[in-house]
Amino acid sequence: MPNYRVHDAINLTALGMSFAGYSMLANTNVIPSVSGAAMIGYTLSYLAGTFLVTPDLDLHGSKPKKRWGIFRFLWRPYATLVPHRSSFSHGWIIGPLTRLLYLALLTLPLLILTNTVQASRELAQQYIGWDALTAIVVGYYLSQWMHLIADRAPLRP
Ligand SMILES: [Zn+2]
Asked: pLDDT tens, 39-63?
């Protein structure tokens, strides 16, 4: 299995290639141009999926977990509950979704207490369209899939 440096290099190379591919296709009107918010959302979610919310959070002491700094303890239950390279971490659909749900469960009480959910919803409705939301999901999932391709993870949900 590749180490984190190889994963990072593969993911960043693929990100650059996706920008080049998008530019080429959008400039020749093969696909429509997307908004700046969509490009930013895609990039940020891809980078978050590359460096912070990766399938290898199922390992105690992994580099992605260390990148969480003082908040790395948040991923301890995840690493304890999810066997390494199982469908819940290295599945193509369920794996990325599991990490998002886990993160949502961890942060939701804090977001509700600080009334951030309502403020975020209003902000999102005002400034983020469906193209940006789609781009965020695509960016996150692509980053996860690049990891799984590098791991040669079997195709499973
Ligand atoms: Zn992995």
From this structure: 999 999 999 999 999 999 999 989 9
Alpha-carbon dihedral sign for residues 107, 108, 109, 112:
positive
59-116 tens-digit pLDDT: 998 999 999 999 999 999 999 999 999 999 999 999 999 999 999 999 888 888 888 8
Q: How far apart are CA 78 and CA 83, in angstroms?
A: 9
Q: How far is the CA of 126 from the centre of ligand 1 (A)?
A: 37
CB atoms within 10 A of CB 142: 20
Helix (H), strand (E), coil (C) string for 32-67: CCCCHHHHHHHHHHHHHHHHCCCHHHHCCCCHHHHC
Distance 105 CA to ligand 1 centre (A): 23
CA of 122 to the centre of ligand 1 (A): 36
- C-alpha 75/C-alpha 77 separation (Å) is 6
* Three-class secondary structure of residue 131 per DSSP: helix
Question: Which amino acid, 111?
Answer: L
* Domain layout of the chain by residue ranges: 4-151
